[in-house]
């Protein structure tokens, strides 16, 4: 959703001779027939680049998304809440790992993908550049951010690229759990003291608009959607997904007894949709440009975590090398004995 410029370049890539055109036609025919594309299959370079970018941005979002929530692990109000939050943050790490693995099948190494993130050359979801000021933010993130992620990711379970589609199936199951546990935090706060309910309301006020921005720019400005739709990477447009999210979420907020920070929010009986007010796209652009409330902090935390984890990576590599050496020595010994 943040990649219009790159994508414009992809779609205008020169097409080589008739052989290449025939391959591209066969590839598109497989996609049209709902066949899955697998890592060793031929694919257009633009398809490979688009997916590498999308999957790695998704992976980066999972990993950076651990930071705002990790902020509350030591301050969760009860042991039960702490255990659930720890499990959720670990799930997000797992999502990152599945996704980096899926991206690697397209031919870019995990190290290169990490480098792109840490050097600021890769994007991650704009939402994680907002701060988690109170415990209610943990509820709001689960309810709204994971809820928005589910809307985006359910259609990706049918993405044309096999490894991505398969990763999404498990990810979506875990995201549903995250969404429910977030909603349950909100429900508990809303049934609690007036101060707790006010805290829940404040969290909704701050997270609502950034969550609507998560779906990316309006369709009219989203140049890459056409090609992604043709390749069956993207099954719904940004605006369609945003509308689905609003329609699903507004009744949930009403059940909580909260109000949405949008005076224009109104139910359109004829269309059967909740209509929402104008989104502040200037804010979105600023966050993407690195000027959100927490961009610098997030990148610093991620770089520090990567540097602090260097010994773990080195130890894992040394261990793998030792095992490989031992296995080779054992194979040699067996061969000599035979
Ligand atoms: Fe996730
Ligand atoms: Fe999640």
From TrEMBL:
Top-level taxon: Bacteria
GO terms, molecular function: phenylacetyl-CoA 1,2-epoxidase activity
GO biological process: phenylacetate catabolic process
Keywords attached to this entry: Oxidoreductase
Biased composition (Polar residues): 1-10
Annotated spans, Disordered: 1-20
Enzyme type, top EC level: oxidoreductase
Keyword Repeat: no
A Pfam family assignment: PaaA_PaaC
Gene3D superfamilies: 1.20.1260.10
EC number(s) on file: 1.14.13.149
GO cellular component, one term: cytosol
PANTHER family in UniProt: 1,2-PHENYLACETYL-COA EPOXIDASE, SUBUNIT A (PTHR30458:SF2), PHENYLACETIC ACID DEGRADATION PROTEIN PAA (PTHR30458)
Record's protein name: 1,2-phenylacetyl-CoA epoxidase subunit A
Underlying gene: paaA
